[in-house]
Each structure stands twice: as structure tokens, then as C-alpha cells.
Amino acid sequence: MNILIAGGTGFIGRYLSNILIKNGHKVFVLTRNISQKNINKNISLVDWQTINPELLKSVKVVIKLSGENVAQLWTKSAKERILNSRVELTSELLKFCKNNEIVPDQLINASAVGFYGRKDALYNQTVDENSEKGDSFLAEICSKNEQSCEAFHVFDNIKVVQLRIGVVLTKKFTFLLALPTIFSLPNPGNKNYYFPWIHLDDVIGFINFSIENKLDGIFNIVGKDLTSHSVFYHTLAKNYFGFIPWTLFLPIFFIRCLGDMSEMLLYGPKTSSRKISNTGYTFKHENLKSALKNLP
């Protein structure tokens, strides 16, 4: 199958492209820099200005992973970039498809569990794909990102998959959390808050599963093992680098001194991945200990 990826040169995109190629797919990656190196030689890099229906019209799956990194200082201009990089890019992607006579059967879009985030950081129930969106900045970004993909319904019978992805664990990320210091790193928020982790293998695995099984709809891409902030940090302490095992939970009002960005630290709803399990997908890492021992 021919697959087009916007954001295929990013962290997730590179891993995904390699797996799709191994599975026998032809992968086209949309990029504004076709001279990039360290890319799988079997990937076809395509400039956003390309108009070549003969080459691209056979594409049947479009994957949208692109988006400005939210891990930066949230200035007014940064917020605009974060939003535009998701919403306006959808319009550009749709235009690209039309210009190249691509009629996709499926669109797979990367959203995030931030969809459920709340400004008051008060969480007392489990959330699933039918739960209402939160009222935070990230919730608004995720909502508008997903809504923008409705434009792809100009293609008859297209299936649209929205992936609400949790925190993707990597060696770099966990190393920063586990740096040995005089004081252990503080657990933000309340002790009953949940940490929505997911291993890269399961992000890639479920995308591939979605393609093979022609899935449609919204899915929370979080680990099957629902993990509180407390359990997450203590499991990290025991199984990764072994930083000082005691932890301090900072008061919410202290974290809020970071302003809007505090919502990234105060995520707390118990986010269910039951819908993924109901599709028949088998998690490659069913618990946090397994995930931490097999980091990319």
C-alpha cells in the first residue's frame, strides 16, 4: 500500500516509516527539506509544492504527525505557532492531496490526551473517548486539530482515525526525570493524579494495526497499565537509573506559578485505553516496568 506521512522526519515519524517499509508498504514523506540525511533510503521524500499525480495518486493512507513542539515557553506567538502548525497544516495537506489526485481511504491524525485537560486541575473520574473536552489551552488545541480533519470527509467513505496520544517514553525523557541529584525530582500535582504514558512501540504498533484493520474513530493511545504520578515516579526510581526514591508532591498553587504551562504537569484524569483493547490490539508493553526496560 502507498502511504503519505506529514511529519515523517520527526521522532515518531522516522520509526513509523521504517516499520511500514518493513511491512511492505511504499512510504512518501512530505517535507520542506528534501535534502535531509539519515533517512531510510527506501523512503521517498516529497516537497510540499510537488504536483505529480502520476507518482502520488495511488496513495491510500494519509498520516498527519506534524505539529509545533508544545514543550517550549508558551508566549503568545508560541501559542499561535502551536495551533497553526496543526490546524492550518490540515488545510495544506488536503490541498496537497487534491493537487496530486490523492483519494485516501484513511486519514490518521495525531492528537493528544491533553484533550481532557482542565484549568482547575480537578479530576475525580475516568475519561474515555466519549468524555467531554477540557477547558485548558491544550484541550482547545487538540479539539481544533481534530475538528480540522473533518475537511477530509470531502472524500467519500474515508475513515478518520484520531490518536489521542499520551506521553511517549524515550531514553532522553526518562533520563532527564531520573538524573541523580541531592533532592529527588518532585511529583507535580496530587497523589491520585494519573500519568498517561505510552511506549513508542505501541504508538507505532497501533498505527500499523489501524491501517491493517481499516479502523475509524477516536482512540486514547495510553498504556494499558493505568499509572498514577506516584506509581510512575516510584517505578522509575526502582527500574531506571535508581534516583533517590523519596518524592515530594508540590502543591497545585506552586505549580500554577508556571502559568498556562502548568497544565502539562498537572494532568490527572484516569485515561482509559479500553477501546484499543476492544479492537483486538495486543499491547507490546502492558506495564510500566516492561516499557522502561525497553526504551527507544
Detailed description of the structure:
This protein is α/β, with parallel strands linked by helices and 296 residues long. It has a domain of 205 residues: NAD(P)-binding Rossmann-like Domain (Rossmann fold). Helices cover 33% and strands 18% of the residues. The protein is built from 10 helices and 13 strands. The chain has a 7-stranded parallel sheet, sandwiched between helices. The longest helix is centred in the N-terminal third of the chain and has 24 residues.
CATH architecture of the domain at 2-168 and 197-222 and 272-283: 3-Layer(aba) Sandwich
Number of helices: 10
CATH superfamily of the domain at 2-168 and 197-222 and 272-283: NAD(P)-binding Rossmann-like Domain
Number of strands: 13
Computed over alpha carbons, the radius of gyration is 19 Å
The percent of residues in helical segments reads 25-40%
Q: Output the strand order for the largest sheet.
A: 3-2-1-4-5-7-11
CATH class of the domain at 2-168 and 197-222 and 272-283 equals Alpha Beta
Structural class by sheet pairing and helices: alpha/beta
Key structural traits:
single chain; 296 residues; alpha/beta; Rossmann fold; seven-stranded parallel β-sheet; two-stranded parallel sheet; 10 helices; globular
